[in-house]
Amino acid sequence: MRRCIELGKKGLGSATPNPMVGCVVVCGDRIIGEGFTSPYGGPHAEVNAIRSVKDEQLLKKSSLYVTLEPCSHFGKTPPCSDLIIASGIPKIFIGLQDPHDKVAGNGIQKLKDAGCEVTVGILDKECRDHHKRFLTYQEQKRPYIILKWAETQDGFIAPTIEKRKGNPQPFWITNGYSKQLVHKWRSEEQGILVGTQTVMDDNPKLTVRNWEGKSPVRVVLDRDLKTPQEFHVLDGDEQTIVLTAVAETKKYRDGIAYEIIDFGQPLAAQISAVLYRHQITSVIIEGGAQTLQTFIYENLWDEARVFKGTIIFGDGILAPEISESPTKTESILADTLSLYYND
């Protein structure tokens, strides 16, 4: 099952909104097939694992290990449980039952009804952590939420207007290696969210450039639609959702999705509901300070990844405050990365 989890991680960022499942086929004490979930719309992990077995006759005396219950319904692909049954694999070991309402034990029951010996709950804690994005989306009806920011040695997230010299572009606090890591993270999550002030100050692209992978869906808070038409987030190069209070569709730009929210009410829960409707299973929130603090205040976050650079501003916008102690810290050259988990 640990090998299944290791394999499943290969689908991080590409399998969504499907879960990143890992699967191995074992005959005796030897792995004879393995697979993970293909990019969305492609074969699931069980299919890839079974197809990778060179001698199909071995399947009838093999065991299959999989991190999540095999599906029992037709979606983009046929049910994995049907393929397992047809292949004649007699023993199935499953990490977790799938909470999806179209599965939810049906796959397990189908396997049992076909005469398979099924064991559920193998390394269930590790499998829950592995499938945290999918499980949060299914069980809590919201995306898995990651907060990310960089702050200076003296606790500022952004400089004063004078330091920017009127030029709307990112003001880097961390080194190039930390920047590359952030782009890797972007490739792993389905959405990326920023507030209006961050867009106005930085004119960010919010894409993956220093790493291979698909860029996340851009989500922009813009109550009054103040973002200039020529700014990167409205260029149409990536799927973009704008959360606004403006209902006049004549102010909307073609190719951009607009969602109305009530800026007079708590925002984090509303944002989470919109992202859930758009089937975004995970989101990384990159600023600004007010937007990040909103999610902290409403206690709607799962992880926080906080960089501390070496530079000092002396003045500027204060970084968000988080009451928990970091679970882990590590160094990226002179930068410090602190990781928090909201358990």
How many domains? The number is 2
Low-confidence stretches: none
Helix percent band: 25-40%
Strand content: 15-25%
Active site: 46 (proton donor)
Binding site for Zn(2+): 44, 71, 80
Keywords: Hydrolase, Metal-binding, Multifunctional enzyme, NADP, Oxidoreductase, Riboflavin biosynthesis, Zinc
Function: Converts 2,5-diamino-6-(ribosylamino)-4(3h)-pyrimidinone 5'-phosphate into 5-amino-6-(ribosylamino)-2,4(1h,3h)-pyrimidinedione 5'-phosphate.
Describe this structure in words.
The chain has 343 residues and is an alpha/beta fold. It folds into two domains: 1-135, Cytidine Deaminase, domain 2; 141-341, Dihydrofolate Reductase, subunit A (3-Layer(aba) Sandwich), CATH 3.40.430. The chain is built from eleven helices and 16 strands. The protein has helices at 2-8, 45-51, 80-87, 106-113, 124-130, 132-140, 161-164, 176-188, 196-202, 267-277, 289-297, and strands at residues 22-27, 30-36, 63-68, 91-96, 117-120, 144-151, 156-158, 191-194, 217-221, 240-244, 257-260, 282-285, 303-308, 317-318, 328-332, 335-341. The strands form three sheets. It has a nine-stranded mixed beta sheet, with helices on both faces. A five-stranded mixed beta sheet has the order 2-1-3-4-5. A two-stranded antiparallel ribbon has the order 7-14. The two termini are 24 Å apart. 41% of the residues are buried. Zn(2+) binds at residues 44, 71, 80. Its cofactor is Zn(2+).
